[in-house]
Specification:
Helices cover about 25% and strands about 20% of the residues.
Length: about 230
């Protein structure tokens, strides 16, 4: 539909007067550079010159200098849970990892950047289920032909199932001489499994940890190939 564009009218202060009564209802329109500069200068002058009675009372506190920021950060770090801080850092600064064929077993997870010792590598993500559901799913996965199990026990009642909904952490292989270890941490009253680096990890080095399976009569052979290999996972 065609409609007539309202003519530009200017107020006494030089700014455009909106015929419809609202700037949003008139859609997109260009503003002259002179009018834009005039508006910016007026707003800047208003911001720089607050009323005399509120200039001191509402003055915001000066930001701390760099040494004070470092001191506050160190005190904050010392008083709060380090696991929570590290987990927040893991969410914002994820390690560069990739999964590809492994000489240990099937697929494996490899580092694409150097990882220092005692750093969070990746969180083991999956679906939280109970023991009864885990037993049912384990039988169902066997019937479906899924040979590998991606279930990780958190505690006596909770198990993380990453078989069909997980991340790269489920590709980490077992090793009797691993370079990482798994740790259960509590973040906002929720238990999470995080993989920590046990030592310095080089680029293209495979990430491994000890599964620590319970001892059973039916043994699962270990293929890690380390010097102190126990021969079985359980």
């Amino acid at each position: 539909t065609s409609f007539s564009t309202p003519k530009k009218k200017k107020r006494d202060d030089g700014m455009r007067e909106h015929v419809t009564g609202c700037a949003r209802s008139e859609g997109y329109y260009k503003i002259d550079k002179k009018d834009k500069l005039k508006y910016l200068n007026n707003s800047r002058a208003f911001a720089e010159e607050p009323p005399a009675d509120t200039q001191v009372r509402n003055c915001p506190p000066c930001p701390p200098r760099a040494p004070e920021q470092r001191r506050l950060l160190s005190s904050f770090t010392g008083s709060c849970d380090s696991d929570l801080l590290k987990f927040n850092q893991l969410k914002f600064r994820k390690k560069k990892l990739k999964f590809c064929k492994s000489h240990i077993h099937d697929w494996g997870l490899f580092a694409m950047e150097p990882i220092a010792a005692d750093e969070m590598v990746i969180e083991y993500v999956g679906q939280n289920i109970r023991q009864v559901i885990a037993d049912m799913r384990e039988k169902r996965y066997e019937d479906e032909g899924i040979g590998s199990s991606y279930m990780f026990r958190v505690d006596h009642d909770t198990i993380i199932d990453a078989t069909k909904c997980g991340n790269f952490a489920r590709f980490i292989n077992h090793s009797c001489n691993p370079n990482c270890y798994a740790k259960v941490i509590t973040v906002e009253s929720q238990k999470k499994i995080v993989i920590y680096s046990k030592q310095h990890i080089n680029v293209n080095e495979e990430i491994t940890y000890d599964y620590k399976f319970p001892i059973e009569d039916v043994k699962i052979p270990c293929l890690c190939g380390s010097e102190n290999c126990r021969g079985t996972l359980n």
